[in-house]
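Module 6 notes. Inverse folding takes a fixed backbone as the condition and produces residue identities as the prediction. Think of it as a translation problem where the source language is geometry and the target language is the twenty amino acids. Below is one complete input and output pair. Work through it position by position during the lab.
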């Protein structure tokens, strides 16, 4: 499982699995246009009149005119649906038809955006979303971000701005098309969270954070960003799962681990760092990773996108601005990456740590934290990072040799 690297350095293949979703703008395909489907084309002007039906002996013969035949063909082609705004020709008493041309009719206004609909959400949130472009000696990258302060602080992914701390040119493009220079503030590679600042600006619109602890599977969400360099792109979907531990690496570099919100809203390369919002327009997640079936080349949406929960992103961003680094609650253990263990296997316990004080030992397997099932080591690490500093949590622990299970209360480290 690997993050999609948006660096444009040559000959760097992408691997399958989980991949980040920022990428440089790609050129459009130059394929020749598709041949029109003859079944859906307009009728030929050389079409002949339909055959005359045999009349009843006591009635006069009547022919079906060409205009009427075409009208009947149109009606037949949409028998299972409807045509909005189509007015058929009227026949007067003399048998002549009066042509109605929609090109001469006034265009109808668009309906008002419904309250709580995607259209209204997009209108509210788009001004708070920016497109980010970074050029360094190592290459170029692009992504998205959310404005979190009116004086220019922007929340984004670490992998969008990786390398910016060592120099380079970074610009952001606002929703109105204005471009400004930006500077690197701080980032945390372990959680893929970063903050940058737009230079010499004020009075910017600011996104509102939502409470990610209150979201539910199945609720509607909207993703906004710049996939493939197409800024101000809006997609919608639902929250398809919660608490997904997702690990992604940046082209073989340090990997990040997030306890993600899973969504089927279409997320593609370039959406990285952009907001995932609820139907009130509140930021509940930051789009970061997509799953891919491809083992190489650029990945695209397959309906499995992952976002960093807003409560966690907000806490880390506040630390990055205040101190330049991020810290998280800790158990004080090292866990083994073992696929043959159903849980998180403790490889070692740090002396004087909360884990040692609670009686955890090497060889213990953590299978649950509160009500959450822990089936991998990554799940334990991601869950503990998401807890509050100094919080006391209950772990379910199994001893593999005996199969005995016990509950252990652990008070996590403070900030």
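Target side of the pair, the amino acids:
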């Amino acid at each position: 499982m690997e993050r999609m690297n948006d660096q444009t350095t040559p000959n760097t293949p992408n691997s399958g699995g989980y991949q980040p979703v920022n990428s440089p703008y790609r050129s459009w395909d130059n394929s020749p246009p598709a041949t029109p489907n003859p079944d859906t084309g307009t009728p030929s002007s050389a079409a002949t009149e339909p055959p005359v039906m045999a009349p009843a002996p006591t009635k006069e013969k009547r022919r079906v005119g060409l205009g009427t035949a075409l009208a009947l063909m149109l009606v037949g082609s949409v028998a299972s649906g409807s045509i909005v705004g189509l007015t058929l020709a009227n026949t007067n008493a003399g048998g002549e038809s009066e042509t109605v041309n929609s090109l001469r009719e006034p265009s109808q206004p668009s309906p008002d955006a419904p309250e709580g609909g995607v259209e209204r959400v997009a209108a509210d949130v788009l001004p708070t979303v920016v497109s980010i472009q970074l050029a360094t000696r190592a290459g170029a990258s692009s992504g998205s971000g959310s404005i979190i302060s009116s004086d220019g602080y922007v929340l984004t992914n670490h992998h969008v701005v990786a390398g910016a701390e060592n120099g380079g040119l970074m610009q952001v493009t606002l929703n109105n098309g204005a471009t400004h220079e930006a500077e690197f503030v701080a980032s945390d590679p372990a959680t893929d969270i970063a903050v940058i600042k737009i230079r010499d600006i004020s009075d910017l619109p600011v996104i509102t954070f939502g409470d990610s602890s209150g979201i539910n599977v199945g609720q509607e969400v909207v993703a906004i960003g710049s996939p493939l360099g197409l800024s101000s792109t809006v997609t919608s979907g639902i929250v398809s799962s919660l608490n997904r531990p997702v690990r992604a690496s940046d082209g073989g570099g340090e990997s990040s681990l997030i306890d993600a919100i899973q969504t089927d809203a279409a997320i593609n390369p370039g959406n990285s760092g952009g907001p995932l919002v609820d139907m009130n327009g509140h930021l509940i997640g930051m789009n970061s990773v997509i799953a891919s079936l491809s083992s190489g080349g650029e990945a695209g949406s397959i309906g499995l996108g992952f976002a960093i929960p807003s409560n966690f992103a907000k806490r880390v961003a506040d630390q990055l601005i205040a101190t330049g680094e991020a810290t998280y609650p800790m158990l004080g253990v090292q866990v083994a990456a073992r696929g043959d263990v159903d849980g998180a296997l403790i490889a070692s316990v740090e002396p004087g740590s909360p884990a040692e004080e609670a009686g955890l030992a090497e060889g213990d397997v953590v299978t649950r934290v509160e009500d959450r099932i822990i089936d991998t080591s990554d799940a334990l690490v991601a869950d503990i990072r998401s807890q509050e500093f100094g919080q006391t949590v209950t772990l379910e622990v199994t001893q593999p040799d005996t199969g005995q299970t016990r509950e252990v209360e652990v008070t996590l480290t403070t900030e």
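Reference fact for the lab report: The chain has two domains: 1-23+113-325, 333-411.
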